[in-house]
Write a structure and sequence with these properties.
- 4% of the residues lie in helices and 39% in strands.
- With 174 residues, the chain is mainly beta.
- It has one helix and ten strands.
- A five-stranded antiparallel sheet has the order 4-5-1-7-8, with no helix packed on it. Strands 3-2-6-9-10 form a five-stranded antiparallel sheet.
- The longest helix is centred in the last third of the chain and has 7 residues.
């Protein structure tokens, strides 16, 4: 599978948000990536990458993880080296889920959320979750391998009202 069209190769996804007001429980948002070996959207992911995990081959890693939104710059960063991902994988979906340890929280409850999808210095997408205010999780990007083997990017903001455990199984559905 070689082609003159290289598609997207190495992607960085960054997520930031403002900390909770003083005295309020922290907001904890998490980046999640799901990989799929089939083009069938009803299939379960081959594996998930999230806090405390990485892909078995090291091609998708969570480089920074925050539980509060405190600090400068991005609170969470994920790197996807799509050009190194095994040919068995046809699709990768990236999403954000809100931890629900301190009661139900939606994107409307989070102050200043911002997600960026970058390839090098090129910004492919930017989201603030205003389109999914009542959701507790959302997919934000989808990468698919075309017939030539090149990876293509598509922004895919879709909200879900589910718990973090179930989100991983739902994020790739049609």
């Amino acid at each position: 599978m070689s082609s003159l069209n290289r598609g997207v190769t190495k992607i960085e996804v960054t997520l930031k948000w403002d900390p909770s007001p003083l005295g309020a429980p922290p907001h904890d948002l998490d980046l999640v990536a799901a990989t799929y070996t089939s083009k069938d959207p009803s299939d379960k992911p081959a594996y998930l990458v999230h806090f405390g995990s990485r892909s078995p081959d090291g091609t998708i890693t969570l480089d920074r993880e925050s539980q509060t939104g405190q600090g400068f710059g991005a609170d969470e960063e994920m790197t996807l080296e799509l050009d190194r991902l095994a040919v068995a994988y046809h699709r990768v979906v990236v999403g954000v889920v809100i931890q629900q340890r301190h009661g139900r929280r939606t994107f409307a409850d989070i102050v200043g959320p911002e997600l960026r999808v970058l390839e090098g210095y090129t910004e492919l997408a930017k989201h603030d979750f205003t389109g999914v205010p009542d959701a507790t999780g959302a997919t934000v990007a989808q990468f698919t391998r075309d017939a030539s083997g090149a990876w293509q990017f598509r922004t895919a903001v879709r909200g879900f009202d589910t718990d973090p455990q179930s989100f991983g199984a739902l994020m790739g559905t049609a």
